[in-house]
Every structure is written in C-alpha cells, then in structure tokens.
TrEMBL record:
This protein's record includes keyword Membrane: yes
TM region(s), chain numbering: 68-87
An MF annotation (GO) of this entry: glycosyltransferase activity
Name of the protein in its database record: Glycosyltransferase involved in cell wall biosynthesis
Keyword Nucleus: no
Keywords: Membrane, Transferase, Transmembrane, Transmembrane helix
Organism ancestry: Bacteria, Bacillati, Bacillota, Clostridia, Thermoanaerobacterales
Domain Glycosyl transferase family: 206-362
Domain Glycosyltransferase subfamily 4-like N-terminal span(s) in chain numbering: 35-187
One family name in Pfam for this protein: Glycos_transf_1
InterPro entries: Glyco_trans_1 (IPR001296), Glyco_trans_4-like_N (IPR028098), Glycosyltransferase_grp1 (IPR050194)
Amino acid sequence: MSESGEFRICFLGGTRYSQPLDATSEKKFRLLAEAAGIFVIGFAQNLKPCRFRQHARFYLLPRLPLAGLRYLLMLTAGAALALWLILRHGIRIIVAQSPYEGFAGAVAKRLAGLLGRQVALIVESHGDFEQSLFLQRRVKLPSLYRILMRWTAGYAFKHADILRAVSDSTKEQLKRWAPGKPIVQFPAWTDIEAFLNASPEPPATAVLYAGVLTPLKGVHVLLDAFAKVIKHLPEARLWIAGREENKEYAAALRQQVVALRLNERVEFTGEVPQQELARYMARCRVFVLPSLSEALGRVVFEAMAAGKPVIGSAVGGIPEMVQDGVTGFLVPPGDPETLADRLSWLLTHPEEAAEMGKRAKAFAEKFFSPAAYQQAYRELFAKAIETLPSGQ
C-alpha cells in the first residue's frame, strides 16, 4: 500500500541513517514503502537532528556521544515522537527494533490508548539483548544496567502484541521472556544482489572480516589465529573492514597487530559501503566471523552470496547458516588454535575452498530474497492489524 493507504507503520530503533540514504537502506525502504506507509525514528550521523523523506518519512534524533545518553534520549524523546506520529499521522503499528526501543514503543502505545488511539506493537530481537551490550564495551555499574535493562525489556514484552526473531537462537530467547506471545521469524535485510553479482576475481591468499569493532565480535581472537597462520603461509593477508564502534577496543587491536608483528600483513579498511564490501568479498579466499555472541550474522550470508566459504563461531544463529565441512567451518568461540587450523586448511586447499564457496552461494540464494523479505513484513503487518479491536 502507499503512504495514503489503509495503515501506516513507525519503525523505532537505534540505527543511524544518512541523508540521502545509502544505497542499501534506499533499497530496503523502497521495498517496505510498497507494503505500507513507513515512518522511521532513528539517529542522525551527528549531533544535528533532521527530518527528511525518501520512500519513508525519517525523524532522526541527535547522535549523542555516550551510549547511555542515546538510550535515554530514545526512551524519552523517541516515545514522545512516536506518540506525536500516532496522533498526527495515524500510525497503526509501531515496530520496535529491539526490546529496549520496545519500551519507548510501549509507552507511546499506552499513552495513545488513553487518548483513544489503539496501536499494535511489534518488538523485534536482532541479537542477544541480555549479554551483547556487555560484550561490546566496558559498562560502568553493570549490575544497575542489568536491572534497568530487564525492567525496560520486561515492560516492552508485556505490552507487545507480536514478536519478531531473526534466528532460532533469538526466537528461543524471546520464548523465555514472553511465553505465549506470537513470534514471527525471518532474517534481517541485506542488499544481497550486490553480493550475488559481485564480479568474480582470482582470489588472493586473503582472509576477510567485516563488522563493527567491538569485543563481542572476537577480532582479537582472529588476530591471534592469523599470527599462527602466517608462520606457515607468510604470503597470507588479513583485511579487517568495519566501523570502530568501540574506540578503546579498536586501539587495542592495532596494538595487538604491532605486538604480533603483523603490520605488513593486516589492513584496517574502516567502514566501507556495501558495493565495496562486495568487492572485498570477491577478492578474498575465506570470510571469518569469530563472534563470541551473534544473533544471525547477516554478513555471513552476504559472504556466502559472494561465493565464499565461511568460518564462523558456533554461537547464536551462525550454525543455522554455515554447514560444517560443507559451506565452511564452525569453530568454538574464543579458540584461536582451531580457528588457525581451519584458516590454514582453506588457504592451502583453494579448489576445495572454491567448491565450498559454490555450495555457500547456492544456500544464500535460497536463504534470502528481497521479495520474501517484503512478503514476510506484509504478513507481519497484517497479523499486527488483526490484534487491534474491530472498528479501529
């Protein structure tokens, strides 16, 4: 339906957006806008709030420097903005993109109800919301954080009408927190065409990691493993692509590179757009995601779509995608020895690695499609509307 159609949706989350949208986000919201009128509350790239229209209407809060302040801003200003959108633009469904943003959505829903406007609340889970924060950065007063997180998440689940999981592991966690609530499961958005259509190149003897740089992702484990690999394969290279989300951790990684004497063999590329990431994937021999915790690992099926074998930690949703010994390898989290062994094998067996990559690509083509993603959201929106009182 168009924006003037039967119902309108507000996505509420901590994602940062640029104006204009990057190519990947543009494709996503162009697709969603065909299903309903879309409004988005998120964060700007800097301290300047902004509002613009591109397929959806975006209302972006200032990105404050401290994570705690951003959470507080979302829980207060985000809730107030969602309520205004309900009253002003007739929002029928709020999609909170984590249980914590779900608190803001639940507050807006409750206040709207007092004003005679009934709204459905969908709460999504894209990761281990209980532990991932503490694996991403050092948290002061962690006990207090845990109490606040449990309370806000519990409030969100209490008032949610439908839950959405992106993997089996997130679905099981949602079941524990909200028994009896309906749960819909489908993977997160990815611009898979960029990876399926990545120009094939003769692969270098290179290993690629892509993702934010936080302790949760286990990049320090990968560096320890790679240091073992180059003792036997001095020509090997490691490319690390991603945003320095945790500056302290990113600095420690660079110090680790120096300490391991990997300066000439490790390249930090910084955050790269999807098209450039697809080119890196086309050139590498193997992709690695050594996470200590992971919901699904969207970048895993992006690498698979590019025809690359994947080595991933046997945590969260990664085993749902990587078939050990068939499309890649699964390794215990935090185990540099096993990781080094699997890396060495793939780097020294290029024909077998290529066959794994072909099987990985075939899996990725079946696992995700833009049309299936759009249809899944259409069905989710329809289920949410059904929860509203008749006549609303």
